[in-house]
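Async update (no meeting this week)

Hi team, since we skipped the sync, here's where things stand on the single-chain job. The sequence we agreed to prioritize is pasted below, unchanged from the tracker. I ran it this morning and attached the output directly underneath so nobody has to dig for it. Comments welcome in thread, and please keep replies under the output.
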Amino acid sequence: MRAVNFFILVVLIGTSLFSQEKSVRPVSISAEPFYGSIFEHNPEIQHLITGHPTGFHISYNNKTFGEKEWERRYNYPDWGFSAAYHNSHNEYLGNAWGVYGHINWYFFNRHVMVGVGQGVAYITNPYDTRTNYYNNAYGSHIMSTTYAKGSFIWENLWKGLGVQAGATIYHYSNANVKAPNNSTNTLVFSVGANYLFDYETFPAYIEKEDPLSRTYAEPITLNLEVRSGFNENDVIGSGAKPFTILSLYADKRINYKSTFQTGVDVFFSTALKEYIRYRAVAYPEDGITGDEDYKRVGLFVGHEWRFNKVAMIAQLGYYVYWPVAFENRLYNRIGLKRYLWQDSLFASVSVKAHWAKAEAAEFGVGYRF
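Output:
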């Protein structure tokens, strides 16, 4: 999972999205202690919800002011890096230390901020068959972590100092690289302070008459993508196995920000193949013989939210070929795509899940014809 999150940080804070040219780049920092509660999104983690998590969140933000077209189209967002400490107040869950790449958007005269961050976390007390078999939420020390936050913010109230208050949801999961992986979702509330460096010389926001968004529209285009990685089925100790996904889909870009997709996925999962064999031996009453086909075929629709050469992807699919009942027939995928050459060759990283339960972290490469 370290590789997954490293890739996410690279594409989110990539050279094509954020220029490396020497230019004025104001920065700010913020710090917020928090207090919250873990959601019971899965009854299997009920025994781990015994206290109210506490911790703190710190951020380093690069301020934009309209040098690039994407900055103007998205109302001059921030991008940067953040870190969080999460004390679960449960002896089995332990604590988490996370680092993130993030982006923040502003609304209502820049007094409302919405941000998302993706990174990697170190869990102090994951599942262990002998010493910590109660922790069925975290199967490994290294986990993927995501946060989404909303805040009321007032910057530069007095000599660069400001305040902010809001709510954040933190998600911890290893994307089923190692079982168990029931994951956690924590809602926290925070109040903190921020400081704007060089507040006296902060540049004016650049406003330009950019081309109409719809001028970026394109005809329907065919895409071929191959995704791969390793995952483990729900049987603890079965080991991570390789998988491959072939995707063929059409997309239609309608404006600067949005592209819609529809297509087909073909799944080849070695972990599912092992799971079928296990169920045939361990639970013969299920009627599984062990010879069932481990391949699956799904139809999906999706959307890309473009940031210059980077896109956030969201897809919803349904298995039309599902020989063995595993999880459920609906699946979803969320991730990032980075266009590498002329909006044709691209790379992606995503998490495929069945609602809130992740099945795999996927690395992909594809071509848009």
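Quick observations from my side:
Residues 2-201 form a domain with the Porin fold (CATH 2.40.160.20).
Confidence is low (pLDDT under 50) at residues 1-22.
Reply here if anything looks off.
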